[in-house]
Specification:
Helices cover 79% and strands 0% of the residues. With 170 residues, the chain is mainly α.
């Protein structure tokens, strides 16, 4: 890759990180606002809001920021884990090469080609199911084939197997 190409990629990564940071801050501000509303509903002595219904709504609204923070943290943790695995696969030269596969106008790989790629990767996985690399490749192949549920399941398994590998090497 040329130096100019590397700079373009770096700029795109910085833009993406800035956008994610903006979204995280916006969500945290939103969660703080929800928390304030919940506290108001729970602690107000205003007769218009001092009813059992408003107290119940206040409890419900108070739960939302906690659920939101948990979902945000889980999503970010999964993204970091997946990125770590992708980086390791790239460094090891084990990424799935999809550059020559036919694509739809949307950019997605055509179904028949994705299914063929999946069958190849499935054979690798079946030969070594306890290796995080084959699980990662299977997750990517499931994703290309359009099976998001199995892709997420395989990626979670790959993350856990890679974590165990790192712990045993430390």
């Amino acid at each position: 890759m040329s130096a100019a190409g590397s700079g373009d990629v770096r700029r795109e990564v910085i833009k993406l990180i800035a956008f994610i940071a903006f979204l995280v801050v916006a969500l945290l501000v939103y969660f703080a606002g929800l928390g304030q509303r919940a506290i108001f509903l729970l602690t107000t002595s205003d007769p218009a809001y001092d009813t059992l219904v408003f107290k119940a709504v206040g409890i419900g609204v108070l739960i939302l920021p906690f659920v939101g923070v948990w979902a945000l943290a889980s999503t970010l943790r999964a993204a970091w884990d997946h990125q770590r695995l992708a980086r390791r696969m790239h460094e090891e030269g084990r990424e799935l090469d999809t550059s020559d596969l036919p694509r739809r106008p949307s950019g997605r790989i055509e179904k028949a080609a994705a299914d063929q790629l999946f069958e190849k990767v499935k054979a690798e996985f079946e030969a070594d199911p306890d290796n995080w690399r084959t699980n990662y490749r299977a997750a990517r192949a499931y994703d290309y084939a359009g099976d998001r549920t199995r892709a997420r399941e395989m990626m979670r398994r790959a993350v856990e197997l890679e974590r165990v590998e790192r712990a045993t090497q430390a």
